[in-house]
Amino acid sequence: MPQKVELKRSMGIWSGLSLVIGTVIGSGIFFKQAGVLQTAGSSTLGLLAWLTGGVITLAAGLTIAEIGARLPKTGGLYSYIESLYGPVAGFLTGWMQVVIYAPAVIASIAGYAAFLTANFIGLPTSSATWIAVIYVAFIAGINLFENRVAASFQVITTSIKLIPIAILIIYGLFFGKVNALGQTVSDTVSHGGGFGMAILATLFAYDGWILLANIAGELKNPRRDLPRSIVGGVSLIVVAYVGVSFGVYHALPSDRIVALQNNATFAVVRAAFGDFGGRALSIAIIISMLGTLNGKMISFPRMAYAMSLDGLFPKYLSKLTRKTQEPTNAILTVALMTIALAIVYTNGVDRLSDIAIFTIWIFYTAAFFGVFILRHQTLDKNVDPATLFKTPLFPITPLVAIIGALFVIGSTVINDFSGAVISIILVLIGLPVFYYYQHKRQQQ
Question: What keywords were assigned to this record (predicted)?
C-alpha cells in the first residue's frame, strides 16, 4: 500500500518569524509615513497612531497565538472559524480569502513591485503588467520545491529588508536635527477622521501577520513555534514601524514629509548616502516586496488545500506532490488566478483587495471572541496545560483586539459604505458554492 503523502513539518522558529515579518513588511513601511502624518495632523499624533495600531495588532497576535496553540491546524483563520462556529462560517472565511483576497492582494503587491522595477531600469510603465506576471511566476516556482526552499527565501529577503529599516532608524535617531515630536502639519487631510483614520491606516499596514497560521501543519512544533513566531514577529514589526516613522520625523520637517509624500524615506536615505542610497533603497524595497509575495504564496494555497481536504473546494487542490510534499495544484491555481487578475483587472486590483480586507476583519473579530469560547472547553488529553500558550492579561488583551477590530469595521462602514456592501455580497456569493459541495459530500 503506497505511503500517504503529508505536509512536511520542517519549519522552525526562524522560518516562522521570517514569515510573519516578511509577510507584513512590504512597501508600506517606506511609503506610509507621510499619509499617516497628514491624516493625524501632527508628528506626535502620527507616532501615537503607529503605536496605537501596533498595540492593537499585538493584542490581536497574542489572542490568536492562544487560539493557534489550542487548534494547531493547517488552514489558519479558516480552520479556527470552522472549529469555533461551524462549517458555513469557516467556508465563507476561506472563500473570501482564497478566491478574492489572495489573488487581489498578491496581484497588487506584484504590480507595485513591477512598477518600481520598470522605473528603476528605465522601462515604460506599460511593461509593469508583464513584469508582475514574471514575479508571480517566479515566486510560485520557488514554492513548488520543498517548503524549506521558500522558507529560506523568506529568511533571506526578510534579512535584506531589515537593513534599510535599521539605517532609517539609526540615521533619524543620531543624525536628524528636527524635533520629532510636536510638529504640526499645515496641509492636513480635509475629509475628516483625523487621529482615528490615521490609526486605521496603520492597522492596514500591520495586516498579514495571521497568515503564518495557515502553515501550522508544517511547523516542527506548532503549539510552541506558532505563538512565539506571531508574538515575536509582531513585536519586531511594531518596533520597525514606530522606529522608522520616528527616524523620518526626526530627519525632516513635517510639512516637508507631507510635500514629499511617497518620496520622504528616499529623501532621508539620499541625505545619508546620496543618489546611490536612493537607488539601493529602491532595490531593497523591490526585494522586500518579493519577500511579501513569497509569504502570501506560502500561506494562501495552504488554506485552499485545507478546504479541499474538508471537501469544500475541488478535490485536486488537496493533492500533494510526493517528492516535495507540497500542495502543488493549490499553489499553481492561486498563481494562475493572480496572473489572470493582474492582466485583466490591472487598475482595480488595489480596490478589490481593500474591499476584501473589510470582511477579513469581520472574521478576525469572530476569531478574537473565540478565545473566550476555547477557555471554557476541555483541553485535548495530550496537551499539558502548563506548556500551553495563554494570552497574557486575559481578558483585557482580547478585548483590546476586539475593540480594534470593531473600530476597523465601523470606520469602513462610515467611510466606504459601498465597499462594505460589495464586500458582504462577495462573501454571500460563496453560500451556494458551500451548499453545492455540502450536497456533493452527502452523496459520497
Answer: Membrane, Transmembrane, Transmembrane helix
